[in-house]
């Protein structure tokens, strides 16, 4: 590939999840475990909100759409912005999760959110604090969908309580 | 200490960082490295905002007060709520940090926020992604202060750019 | 797939990296970054040694084959044994790495070592200890090769010093 | 403290857990949870063996002395050597643990091993792999004892099986 083509590819890449103006962290994303998240448009300070629908749980069982909240580092000079967000599993879990990651565009132009997460479980006492934190990785890719808040149409209908999730 | 005294201590403990009604995650906290954070009153859904003033940086240099945003798991049945929040280092860093932890009250009635954090640095390409995430621990204790947003009075006045921080 | 076929597949799987008798953690493995490792036959207590040739470094530069040492949990009742090992980067780095993981066989019969690692850098003082530990993930798959200690034939010939690696 | 006194303190510090000649990682260490480990004399290549007696377990229950194996980075130019080791919980657990850390001497001359660990549990399938790894921190300080392999005298006598531990 000549340098001209490379420049073009780079420009295309920058027009996707990177450009400050468009702030394309927003949208619908899916990870390797088929969990979904939908991120809102970014506020001027980089803040965003969204929803997370996990497909995996610590204890099995039914999950619900969970709120997420975070911020993208303002990408003044960095081509690939970093971000972090937290998900709280509301009524069906006593755990909390935090993700931190960076947005990339791979050679084929595909947007990726490369993230590391911590899953913090509630423990009953300070003596059990040592075992409360799990760590892992997730890569999200953009999921193309029809317009609209589609996450809600994907939510399971069950009402069972479930335990911590990702 | 008799069981009556113990009950009293427990009640006092529960009246501090634990009680759902009072949501005392709010306030000023200091960690082992003398970094400070101030957390706002919690919203009805557990969400909170705040400010973080770090004392340590990856590259040395001057720091600034940075915004934080997160949520506390609603402590329906759990005595010690978990929480998570993100800090973004705004104009002086290309990194982002996420904390996840749990609030405890130790035997002497001292409130503690036992947290694990990830510090995500921006890297220039997907090939460098493997090395972008640091992990560590911080324990915060409540810092008693005069009323008011004291974090601002503690902010350094320098204007130098600095690198990622905790 | 009928249950007979499933049983057969399971038996095939168990005959690869799982069987206690054969202890097939030994052999040559490659991860996503094209780093290679060669693990010796396991000792009776699960201990093993080997060599690691990284393709990525914290500071760039030339790498050398590095010794590794670890142990596999004795898989008495667990079909998929866990293991952990450490790599030390000898003369070309002041860092140390530890991996912990588990051996799996995926649906297509491919052996995988799913690992999480920590990379510990040396820091100059206790005050810098907070930033010394990176965390990440690596998946290794078996690399088929001609007989012999092939890692040595793949070693770079340069003599330059380099910095920490994975 | 004058610079002369500081130099003296530094020399004293270097004569403890740091000096390459004496290789003082060996000995008996205790962490915040009262777990104990005993590290052998270091081999010429930095390798060491030892034993670990944990006081905490994932599932409660009785523990046994467990073997550990690791290596210290050869501290050619680094005053404070890094190290890593693995512990395997032999017959009473299906988990494996890896530690990575660095040896420090604090201002009062007290030797410390500042470590981060991963605890890898065995899971039943690749689908559960995401939740298998916990992360945490431990600080070990030297425990002064009478001569001899004292860890064995501290071992619990129970014969019950127990689950993963640190």
From TrEMBL, chains A, B, C, D:
It is found in: Secreted. GO terms for cellular component: extracellular region. Its main location: secreted. The keyword NAD does not apply. Residues 1-23 form the signal peptide. SUPFAM superfamilies: Avidin/streptavidin. Keywords: Biotin, Disulfide bond, Glycoprotein, Secreted, Signal. InterPro entries: Avidin, Avidin-like_CS, Avidin-like_sf, Avidin/str, Avidin/Streptavidin-rel. GO terms for molecular function: biotin binding. Forms a strong non-covalent specific complex with biotin. Belongs to the avidin/streptavidin family. Homotetramer. This is Avidin. The lineage of its organism: Eukaryota, Metazoa, Chordata, Craniata, Vertebrata.
């Amino acid at each position: 590939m000549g340098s001209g083509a490379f420049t073009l590819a780079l420009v295309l890449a920058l027009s996707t999840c990177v450009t400050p103006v468009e702030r394309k962290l927003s949208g619908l994303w899916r990870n390797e475990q088929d969990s979904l998240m939908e991120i809102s448009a970014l506020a001027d300070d980089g803040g965003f909100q969204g929803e997370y629908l996990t497909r995996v749980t610590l204890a099995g069982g039914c999950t619900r759409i969970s709120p997420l909240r975070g911020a993208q580092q303002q990408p003044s000079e960095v081509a690939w912005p970093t971000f972090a967000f937290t998900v709280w599993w509301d009524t069906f879990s006593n755990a909390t999760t935090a993700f931190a990651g960076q947005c990339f565009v791979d050679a084929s132009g595909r947007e990726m959110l490369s993230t590391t997460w911590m899953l913090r479980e509630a423990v009953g006492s300070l003596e059990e604090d040592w075992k409360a934190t799990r760590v892992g990785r997730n890569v999200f890719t953009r999921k193309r969908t029809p317009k609209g808040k589609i996450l809600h149409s994907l939510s399971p209908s069950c009402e069972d309580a479930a335990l911590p999730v990702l």
